[in-house]
């Protein structure tokens, strides 16, 4: 394991360089503002008249078209949604990259699966926070940082890693620590994590538990508290000090029940399916499906979103969070 901290960063490598952040969404906002506040020369590239344009210029950022930003940038840090990066690269970035420039990402998707193929004389780097943009900005403002990953897919200039680390320091990540990885490892593990464990796994587990209780006749509100609300409390204990800390904090009843029963919930069949899901990520099968979906205007995603909106747990949860003052606006 190779971990980098502030002390390992040579900030001078970006001193006379401009970082063009493309996009001002979750990561674009957080990273561009952190980098600017850290003293890096930052410009933001956006679509003219898009919603982000006003937000970014109101925040005092130097905003311009994607083409102009890519032209000005010695480093072009691409922070727009993964599924449109390939198109925007072709139309607005590719021709603006010059020998010795760096193209940078926070997810290896488009490089790893070959949707973006920069010329041989361009550095290809990644600096990726392990956390959502809101956290990246908030932690920075509070004087901390979220941890991150760094990777170099191509080092054309000899200092690609230095450049990526200096960006990481600007974004506040090297304060917590930045772990070295590869584009392949980051991309495949990130996709697997969000599908099987985090976004897909957690919501699937919560909802299955919720439905089991409701179908058995228990109050939906009780089911919500038990399967959804308490999830955060348990995960917080694990996040802080590991499984052992959580097992220690819950009752012996919960500890015995949890340890003795869990293999009946996550079964050999589940593990087999996890391996299959990982295989489809590694072979590019998932990526192909996502591309087909996007080319068709995202019909499946839109219908899945509607089904998700209609879930009973979503209705019960909204009502309950409001009643308990748990849901803050925003
Ligand atoms: P996002 O969906 O929040 O990005 C939206 C931004 O992209 C907006 O500013 C929008 O104006 C801009 N945009 C959209 N289409 C555009 C176009 N055609 N031309 C120019 N700008 C356009 O994106 P995100 O979630 O911040 O993700 C950005 C990258 O960061 C992705 O590679 C993602 O995988 C990675 N990442 C995201 C997170 C996260 O927490 N969201 C975490 C780690 C890595
Ligand atoms: Mg991830
Ligand atoms: Mg991801
Ligand atoms: Mg309980
Ligand atoms: Mg205990």
From TrEMBL:
Cofactor: Mg(2+)
Example GO BP: isoleucine biosynthetic process
Protein name listed in UniProt: Ketol-acid reductoisomerase (NADP(+))
Active site annotation, chain numbering: 107
Enzyme Commission code: 1.1.1.86
UniProt binding sites for Mg(2+) 1: 190, 194
GO MF annotations, alphabetized: isomerase activity; ketol-acid reductoisomerase activity; magnesium ion binding; NADP binding
Species of origin: Methanobacterium paludis (strain DSM 25820 / JCM 18151 / SWAN1)
Ranges of residues in domain KARI N-terminal Rossmann: 1-181
Binding site for substrate: 251
Enzyme class: oxidoreductase
Recorded metabolic or biological pathway in which this protein acts: Amino-acid biosynthesis; L-valine biosynthesis; L-valine from pyruvate: step 2/4; Amino-acid biosynthesis; L-isoleucine biosynthesis; L-isoleucine from 2-oxobutanoate: step 2/4
């Amino acid at each position: 394991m190779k971990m980098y901290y502030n002390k390992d960063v040579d900030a001078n490598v970006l001193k006379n360089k401009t970082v063009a952040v493309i996009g001002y969404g979750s990561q674009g906002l957080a990273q561009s503002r952190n980098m600017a506040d850290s003293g890096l020369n930052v410009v933001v590239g956006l679509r003219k008249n898009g919603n982000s344009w006003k937000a970014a210029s109101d925040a005092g950022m130097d905003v311009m078209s994607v083409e102009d930003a890519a032209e000005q940038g010695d480093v072009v840090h691409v922070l727009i949604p993964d599924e449109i990066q390939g198109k925007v690269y072709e139309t607005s970035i590719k021709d603006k990259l010059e020998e010795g420039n760096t193209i940078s990402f926070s997810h290896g998707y488009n490089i790893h699966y070959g949707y973006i193929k920069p010329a041989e004389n361009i550095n290809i780097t990644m600096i990726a926070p392990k956390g959502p943009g809101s956290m990246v900005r908030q932690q920075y403002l509070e004087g901390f940082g979220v941890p991150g990953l760094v990777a170099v897919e191509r080092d054309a200039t000899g200092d690609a890693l230095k450049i990526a680390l200096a960006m990481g320091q600007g974004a506040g990540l090297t304060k917590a620590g930045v772990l070295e990885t590869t584009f392949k490892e980051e991309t495949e593990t990130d996709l697997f994590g969000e599908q099987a464990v985090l976004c897909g796994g957690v919501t699937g587990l919560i909802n299955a538990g919720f439905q089991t209780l409701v179908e058995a006749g228990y109050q939906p509100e009780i089911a919500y508290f038990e399967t959804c609300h308490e999830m955060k409390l348990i995960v917080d204990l694990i996040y802080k000090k590991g499984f052992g800390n959580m097992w220690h904090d819950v009752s012996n009843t919960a500890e015995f029940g949890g340890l003795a029963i869990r293999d009946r919930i996550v079964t050999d069949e589940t593990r087999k399916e996890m391996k299959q899901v990982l295989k489809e990520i590694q072979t590019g099968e998932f990526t192909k499906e996502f591309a087909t979906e996007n080319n068709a205007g995202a019909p499946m995603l839109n219908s899945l979103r509607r089904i998700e909106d209609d879930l009973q747990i979503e209705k019960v949860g909204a009502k309950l969070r409001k009643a308990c003052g748990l849901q803050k606006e925003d």
